[in-house]
């Protein structure tokens, strides 16, 4: 996206809304690591985005959600109208509000599912109204602006959760809860816990029962989810840090760098050093 074509509203650098209105192709080759929660709404356009080393093509109206630490770049895009909302935890903590909003592990902090949500025409009308209200409030300097902006952001996120639940295939509440609880536990502990047994114990189920549950619902196996989360972080660190392979291995819970190298190569067909060299060139 060309900077000169973006109009940005900001509140103390902790909450921003950017409005894009142009018809121009743009290719951003260099991946960037996201440092704030981000919501992109491509209202009209098409393209291909790379998120955490996976490519996602889109067309027409689509919402997608990124969390701090994720890797993002534009392979190609042609956008007529788009919005970008960014916020930090100090402005709106999704974990604190999760009981009310239920977006943690569904929209955000979810590296296990395609991050896109497609709104219907009726949804678009509602989202438009919230964004117009947000823009009006950004221009307002009256008392309690922080609370009003946070309220509109919360409404936008709640509606996005409803869209995902209504228009996307989701398991029933109990099935969703187990997968969500497991995936959040993995996201919080993958650097120190590598076994299915460790997670099953914390969830109060047996490893066998957990694995069968995932099989029954057509999900990746628990062991694959753990492995893939470790590999994802390894890729991020290999590209965005200057740490040695040995230090990255240690940071990810491996006492033996050689074992980590074999683990990484088995999953990616490349050694960590070769992956780093090939990706940066």
Written account of the structure:
- This protein is α+β, with helices and mostly antiparallel strands.
- The protein has two domains: 3-167, Regulatory protein AraC (Jelly Rolls); 173-280, Arc Repressor Mutant, subunit A (Orthogonal Bundle), CATH 1.10.10.60.
- It has helices at residues 98-101, 121-138, 145-167, 173-189, 196-203, 207-216, 222-240, 245-251, 257-268, 272-280; strands spanning 6-11, 15-26, 32-33, 37-51, 54-59, 62-66, 71-87, 116-117.
- Strands 1, 2, 3, 4, 5, 6, 7 and 8 form an eight-stranded antiparallel β-sheet that branches.
- Strand 4 (37-51) and strand 5 (54-59) form a beta hairpin.
- Helix 4 (173-189) packs across helix 7.
- The model has no long low-confidence stretch (mean pLDDT 84).
């Amino acid at each position: 996206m060309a900077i000169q074509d973006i109009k940005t509203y900001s509140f103390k650098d902790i909450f921003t809304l950017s409005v894009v209105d142009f018809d121009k192709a743009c290719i951003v080759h260099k991946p960037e690591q996201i440092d704030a929660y981000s919501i992109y709404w491509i209202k009209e356009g098409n393209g291909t985005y790379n998120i955490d080393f996976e490519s996602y093509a889109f067309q027409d109206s689509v919402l997608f959600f990124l969390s701090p630490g994720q890797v993002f770049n534009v392979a190609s895009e042609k956008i007529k109208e788009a919005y970008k909302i960014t916020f930090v935890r100090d402005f709106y903590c999704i974990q604190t509000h999760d009981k009310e909003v239920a977006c943690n592990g569904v929209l955000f902090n979810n590296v296990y599912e395609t991050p896109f949500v497609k709104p219907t025409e009726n949804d678009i009308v509602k989202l438009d109204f919230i964004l117009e209200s947000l823009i009006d409030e950004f221009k307002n300097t009256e008392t309690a602006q922080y609370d009003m902006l946070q309220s509109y952001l919360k409404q936008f996120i709640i509606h996005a959760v409803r869209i995902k639940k209504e228009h996307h295939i989701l398991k029933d509440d109990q099935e969703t809860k187990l997968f969500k609880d497991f995936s959040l536990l993995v996201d919080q502990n993958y650097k120190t816990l590598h076994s299915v047994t460790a997670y099953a114990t914390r969830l109060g189920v047996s490893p066998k029962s957990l694995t069968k549950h995932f099989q029954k619902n057509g999900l990746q196996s628990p062991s694959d989810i753990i492995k893939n989360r470790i590999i994802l972080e390894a890729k991020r660190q290999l590209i965005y840090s200057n740490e040695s392979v040995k230090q990255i291995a240690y940071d990810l819970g491996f006492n033996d760098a050689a074992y980590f190298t074999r683990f990484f190569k088995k999953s990616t067909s490349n050694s960590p050093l070769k992956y780093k060299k090939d990706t940066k060139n």
